[in-house]
Write a structure and sequence with these properties.
Blueprint (H helix, E strand, L loop, with lengths): L3 H26 L11 E5 L5 H10 L3 E5 L3 H20 L5 H9 L1 E4 L2 H5 L4 E4 L5 H14 L5 E4 L6 H5 L8 E5 L9 E6 L5 H13 L3 E6 L6 H17 L5 H10 L6 H8 L1 H14 L8 H8 L34 H16 L5 H12 L5 H5 L4 H15 L8 H4 L3 H4 L1
Parallel strand pairs: 1-2, 1-4, 2-3, 4-5, 5-6, 7-8
Antiparallel strand pairs: 6-7
Bound molecules: nicotinamide-adenine-dinucleotide.
């Protein structure tokens, strides 16, 4: 007798298998318009310091890319910078000449937002760090993109939930926070808003994998993982600058001498003092007024001395954006590890608030900011009484409670929680 029940089961499995393949195929392609040679389209809004780099990452991940900015000159400069960078990959034999031609042909630049966003599978916004501006862009993107389009923000501090709530698709809104420069970045911080769906999260995780980046995942909270933990050390160096405690060059020399790839003041210029100023204001509103922008940085921003992008900030930068030359022979008598000490304290708060896991916090700080160690790797080698005294003294010296030792450090329970 033939075994009908087993052949029936096999038949059902076969149908289910083919049906799953069909669903997967539909999820991938249904309604999504392909561009050049069947490439899906990614749109990048804002072609400045970060935007043009994000566009290049998407090109290298094999997407057709439309790069948009309101400023003609910036968008043309963005394209030239991408062209320059891709040619460098050819020079280093990392891509062929043919691949270069293919990639550059997959790039479109436009000042027309509708054209940029039309049929994009993913839009990544990288406009200045101003919440109302970002909300405005997301409102427009929500109106002009197909319902399937995922809308991402490269914000370094601001609420993805609030940005998503101005759209009719908060489930498809997510944070994609790239470190600068995006092409060389090894990690992407993915920020899950309160309403971001699993599908959206999986989609951007796959995007990051396709771009060959590590992923860390953060809850929606001011500054997420990396910039939140960095915030008190950024505050400390601003306060030291206001008080003229050391020259920026001497501090940066001390940092370079212990193996950091960039000193903290050069980093501020590199990021952009306007970005720092806007982020500090956001932290001051959302976390503590201790984070209000410092006098020196406010004055520099007022004078449009924004750092690398305007040719002058804390340092003078030459026109090609080459790094300032730091004299390393006479470093400040400053323990650069103090910057790490305040980061460890903030990392404890981030862990307590459930923003991220120990693994993602350590990995994020190493890959995003090139710290040689993650904060929780470092704490295992520290005397917690000394750390508590140091933090409490710092809080008293500058009158800033954000530096005060976290209870888990004071009562030495942090190690048990890792
Ligand atoms: N600078 C960094 O190191 C860094 C790192 C990570 C994340 N970010 C985040 O990336 C975002 C962009 O920062 P950036 O450093 O590239 O700034 P940027 O000033 O270099 O570039 C912003 C660009 O947006 C354009 N723009 C302004 N309004 C626009 C609009 N309505 N439509 C389209 N384009 C518009 C500007 O012309 C400019 O070219 C910010 O949210 C910032 O917090 C910056």
């Amino acid at each position: 007798m033939p075994d009908f029940s087993s052949s029936f089961k096999k038949g059902v499995f076969k149908i289910l298998f083919q049906f799953s393949l069909l669903i997967l195929n539909l999820m991938e392609n249904d309604g999504i318009i392909m561009n050049n040679e069947n490439k899906k389209k990614v749109s990048v809004i804002g072609a400045g310091h970060m935007g043009h780099g994000i566009a290049e990452v998407a090109l290298l991940a094999d997407y057709f890319v439309s790069l948009h900015d309101i400023d003609d000159e910036i968008i043309n400069r963005g394209k030239s910078l991408i062209d320059w960078s891709l040619k460098k990959f050819v020079e280093k034999s990392q891509i062929t000449e043919k691949k270069y031609e293919e990639l550059i042909n997959n790039l479109e630049i436009t000042t027309d937002l509708e054209k940029a966003a039309e049929n994009a599978i993913l839009c990544i916004e990288a406009v200045p760090e101003k919440l109302e501006l970002k909300k405005d862009i997301f409102r427009k993107l929500d109106e002009i993109t197909p319902k399937y389009t995922i809308l991402a923000s490269n914000t370094s501090t601001m609420s993805i939930t609030e940005i998503g709530n101005v759209t009719q698709r908060p489930d498809k809104v997510v944070g994609l926070h790239f470190p600068p420069p995006p092409v060389l970045a090894r990690v992407i911080e993915i920020v899950r808003g309160d309403k971001t769906s699993d599908h959206t999260l999986n989609f951007v995780v796959n995007f990051a994998k396709r771009a060959e980046k590590e992923v860390i995942i953060s809850k929606d909270s001011p500054g997420f993982i990396c910039n939140r933990i960095m915030a008190p050390s950024m505050l400390l160096i601003q306060l030291m600058l206001d008080r003229n405690e050391y020259t920026p060059e001497k501090i940066d020399a001390a940092a370079l001498n212990i193996g950091m790839i960039m000193g903290p003041y050069e980093l501020l210029d590199y990021i952009g003092l306007d970005i720092l100023h806007d982020s500090s204001k956001y932290f001051a509103e959302r976390l503590s007024t201790d984070y209000s922008p410092s006098q020196t940085i406010s004055k520099l921003v007022q004078d449009n001395k924004l750092g690398r992008k305007t040719g002058e900030g804390i340092y003078k930068w030459c026109s090609e954006g080459k790094r300032p030359i730091i004299d390393r022979s006479d470093p400040a008598d400053f323990d650069v590890m103090d910057l790490m000490r305040v980061q460890i304290n903030e990392a404890a708060k981030v862990l307590e608030e459930g923003v991220a896991t120990v693994r993602d916090i350590d990995l994020g700080m190493k890959l995003h900011y090139h710290n040689p160690w993650g904060p929780f790797e470092l704490i295992e080698h520290m005397d917690l009484d000394e750390l508590t005294n140091f933090l409490d003294n710092l809080a008293d010296k500058y009158g800033k409670e954000v530096f005060r030792a976290h209870d888990w450090i004071r009562n030495k329970s942090l190690l048990e929680r890792l």
